[in-house]
Write a structure and sequence with these properties.
Elements (H helix, E strand, L loop, with lengths): L8 H25 L9 E3 L13 E4 L5 E8 L4 H11 L13 H8 L3 H13 L3 E6 L4 E7 H8 L3 E4 L5 E3 L4 E3 H4 L2 E5 L6 E4 L2 E2 L14 E3 L12 E2 L6 E2 L3 E2 L3 H7 L3 H5 L11 E5 L6 H9 L7 E5 L11 H14 L5 E5 L10 H12 L4 E4 L1 E4 L3 H17 L3 E5 L8 E4 L4 E4 L7 H4 L4 E7 L17 E2 L1 E2 L8 E2 L3 E7 L13 E4 L2 E4 L7 E6 L1 H4 L10 E7 L1 H19 L7 H9 L7 E2 L28 E2 L1 H9 L9 E3 L2 E8 L7 E6 L8 E7 L4 E3 L7 E2 L4 E8 L5 E2 L3 E7 L6 E10 L3
Parallel strand pairs: 16-18, 16-19, 17-18, 19-21, 21-24, 24-30, 36-44
Antiparallel strand pairs: 1-8, 2-6, 3-5, 3-9, 4-5, 6-7, 10-20, 11-32, 12-32, 13-14, 14-15, 22-23, 24-25, 26-27, 28-29, 31-32, 33-34, 35-37, 37-41, 38-40, 38-43, 39-41, 42-44, 43-44
Helix pairs in contact: 9-10, 10-15, 11-12, 15-17
């Protein structure tokens, strides 16, 4: 594979020669592969619908005209401008549509393609000799098959062989009759020069006290000795692996990012507001997840599998990503159910099971938060703007919050490698365009050196830096993905406080990502670790130290799920409110600014972290105990709190002596859905109130009680005082009338 960079004059001449040669190959391929009939009606090119890297590859010649292609058309949404206006109105306080989310049926009726649109496209495909294998109006997809020769003729493109006989791609954008192009967003399957990659990094440090060469793994076999003499110790609440050190477990995460006060108050992501959706393309075995929960004293994770393509793909190497996502989303929101949306590349339209899984999470509409820990590479720009973006726009209109990892290759990002059929680090600036979608929150990564107590438990936050681990020759290093989108213009919420570059900047936020500093304990199928062939589901349970922005994404998804519970309902796109809060002062709303480090990677100059927003960590990480209520307070609040009693009289109390305490109860009615945060409780004069409810979060059906005392300073009636309870309910402040009288001491 050949890549272009900043070329010398000699290399520029070579590149020019290659372009001339490529043009000749395209011309010859066009003549050899097809004989185009005269076209009676106006034709329209679908812009941005050919592989972005095809001019970087070695083109061998024309693709085999007899090769069968599995292809798919994506149907256009209707009224897209109206959809964008609706999403803006759903996010605007005071609008009649504020937080009035659509159902999938309502979305389809207002913005989805019609049955007539579907028929128009299907009829044209049949007329071109293609075999239509499925037509799904809900998915806005028509799957079809045909030969290279048929595709070249129908879409008026040259399809070239690239690198070897197994790889091919269309050199230009497909062309369609205007009547058909009016209902089509994109065509997939004219190339196979793309892939998806999980954003996972596994630390493979070797134990210091053995020459066995064992990986950093300990099997969960009743704490028996395993390879390398490694024995897990201190099983609760966290883990220390002998000869290797101390790593992060769920309680460490909850302490470091200050979730513990929320969890202690009962804000754990539970309630009727739904689940966290995780997407993937590998099935998994249940035992490692159960072992993770047992080891770290987490409640059992209720996981429901949803087959996006009707049939499981079985277990493959991406099972490791599945475990990381499921376990750490649960660690961050231990009360939330999980749904795992599973795609099957073998039977998915155009072979993209991950796309089907993402789409299923949105069409199902069961989960208010969806987490994606994958990046794509090699796809044309239309894949992001015309295939994925309408899915994410539907999610936004339904009130779903989509979180995606920004990638693990720093400012370099990834490109497609046809030799190994995978995404590899690029040699020029690239971002994950999936994460850069304006309807998605992109999450980058940080590293840090935690402080542990004598039991190996984190004691609190420390300064964080941009995640950028050097290549150790084993795991390959990694860095926080970030930079400037090549596909999306700058959304309105980034109009201020971000670079004036006119494009979508990523990431928006960051979280723990380094597999070394500190590394997160993940329980996996041992076959993923010890078997050279990869995951097969038959291995013993194993403990692995992992990281990557695919750790950061489900972590943030869990925090977003806490916000949903606190707000009592869906919150939609995280970013518009996030940017408003951050602009008003990061630290005040619980955003921890990351000001050191750079995300340069693979020879690509990166971006420095600094005060405020930056292209390495976005707005930084989080103090959840501050950020969750701060975010929730911007949303519709419960209209009332019930405070009892309404008045308290303290009579005949000895001067200078405190009265017996009287109890005031703040109750959030069970009929309301949102949590309430109490601010200050203020008395005055000769009356005092305990401060235990200040800062408390009160869930629906829950209450907080505090005491009030009267200490008269003189005989006779005291000046009456109105006790005030400030909070974020609609009827704040609530009041209690306080009266009292003093008597001379006996």
């Amino acid at each position: 594979m050949e890549f272009q960079g900043h070329a010398s004059p000699a290399l520029e001449r070579i590149a020019a020669i290659r372009k001339v040669a490529l043009a000749l190959i395209i011309a010859l391929a066009t003549i050899a592969a097809i004989s185009r009939p005269a076209r009676a009606q106006m034709m329209v090119r679908l812009a941005g619908n050919h592989p972005r890297d095809i001019d970087r590859f070695t083109v061998v010649g024309a693709a085999d005209s007899r090769r069968t292609l599995a292809m798919a058309l994506t149907l256009k949404l209707r009224n897209r401008a109206a959809l964008d206006q609706l999403i803006a109105a759903q996010e605007a306080p005071g609008s009649p549509n504020y937080h009035r989310w659509l159902t999938p049926d309502e979305f389809a009726a207002r913005f989805g393609p019609t049955a007539s649109d579907l028929q128009t496209a299907a009829d044209w495909l049949s007329a071109q000799g293609f075999a239509v294998t499925s037509a799904d109006l809900t998915r806005r997809t028509i799957a079809f098959t045909g030969t290279v020769a048929q595709a070249a003729r129908a879409f008026n493109v040259a399809i070239l062989q690239v690198a070897d006989a197994g790889h091919y791609g269309n050199a230009d954008d497909p062309e369609l009759p205007a009547s058909v192009a009016s209902v089509i967003e994109s065509v997939r399957g004219l190339d196979n020069l793309h892939a998806a990659r999980p954003a996972l990094r596994r630390s493979e440090l070797r134990p210091a006290a053995t020459d066995s060469g064992a990986l950093q793994v300990a099997a969960d076999t009743g704490d028996a000795l395993v390879a390398g003499g490694m024995l897990p110790e201190n099983p609760a609440p966290e883990y220390y692996v002998r000869n290797l050190g101390t790593f992060f477990g769920p309680a460490d995460f909850q302490t470091f990012y200050d979730e513990s006060p929320l969890l202690g108050a009962g804000l754990k992501g539970a309630g009727a507001a739904g689940c966290i959706g995780i997407v993937g393309d590998s099935d998994f075995v249940a035992r490692p997840v159960a072992a993770f929960n047992s080891r770290f004293r987490l409640p059992g994770a209720g996981i429901r599998k949803v087959m996006a393509d009707r049939k499981s793909p079985g277990i493959n190497g991406d099972e490791m990503e599945t475990f990381l996502d499921l376990e750490w989303a649960h660690a961050a929101a231990p009360g939330s159910p999980l749904r795992y949306y599973l795609g099957n590349n073998a039977i998915a339209a155009a072979g993209d099971g991950l796309l089907d899984a993402i789409r299923a999470a949105v069409i199902d509409n069961a989960c208010p938060v969806v987490s994606i820990s994958y990046s794509y590479c090699g796809n044309p720009s239309s894949f992001y703007t015309a295939t994925l973006d309408p899915i994410f726009a539907q999610a936004a209109s339904q009130g779903q919050t989509v979180i995606a990892s920004s990638g693990d290759q720093g400012a370099a990002g990834v490109v497609y490698d046809p030799v190994n059929n995978q995404c590899i680090a690029a040699t020029s600036p690239t971002v994950s365009e999936l994460a850069a979608d304006p309807n998605v929150t992109a999450v980058g990564g940080v590293s840090f050196d935690p402080v542990y107590d004598g039991n190996g438990n984190d004691v609190g936050s420390v300064a964080e830096r941009v995640w950028n681990d050097p290549d150790d020759g084993i795991a390959g290093g990694g860095a926080s993905g970030g930079g400037r989108s090549a596909a999306f213009a700058k959304p309105s919420y980034q109009s201020a406080d971000t670079p004036a570059d006119g494009v979508r900047d990523v990431p928006d936020l960051s979280l723990i990502a380094s597999p070394y500093y500190p590394g997160a304990i993940t329980v996996m199928d041992g076959s993923c670790v010890f078997a050279s062939a990869g995951c097969d589901g038959r291995g013993a349970v194993a403990i692995v130290i992992a990281g990557g922005t695919s750790l950061a994404a489900p972590g943030w998804a869990g925090i977003a799920r806490l916000i949903v519970q606190a707000a009592g309902g869906r919150i939609g796109r995280l970013n518009p409110t996030l940017y408003d809060l951050a602009a008003a002062g990061q630290s005040a709303v619980g955003l921890r600014d990351v000001v050191s480090g750079n995300n340069g990677y693979n020879g690509v100059a990166g971006f420095d972290a600094g005060p405020g927003f930056d292209l390495a960590t976005g707005w930084g990480t989080v103090d959840a105990a501050v950020f969750v209520p701060a975010y929730a307070r911007t949303l519709p609040r419960p209209p009332t709190l019930k405070v009892t009693p309404a008045a308290i009289a303290f009579n005949n109390v000895a001067v200078g002596k405190p009265s017996p305490p009287r109890i005031v109860t703040i109750n959030n009615p069970r009929t309301q859905t949102g949590w309430v945060m109490v601010g200050q409780v203020t008395a005055g004069g000769d009356f005092s109130a305990a401060g235990n409810c200040a800062g408390a979060m009160i869930g629906p059906g829950k209450s907080c009680k505090f005491t009030v005392r009267f200490t008269p300073s003189a005989s006779g009636p005291a000046a009456p005082v109105t006790l005030q309870i400030a909070d974020d309910a609609g009827d704040s402040p609530q009041t209690v009338a306080l009266t009292g009288s003093g008597r001379a001491p006996r």
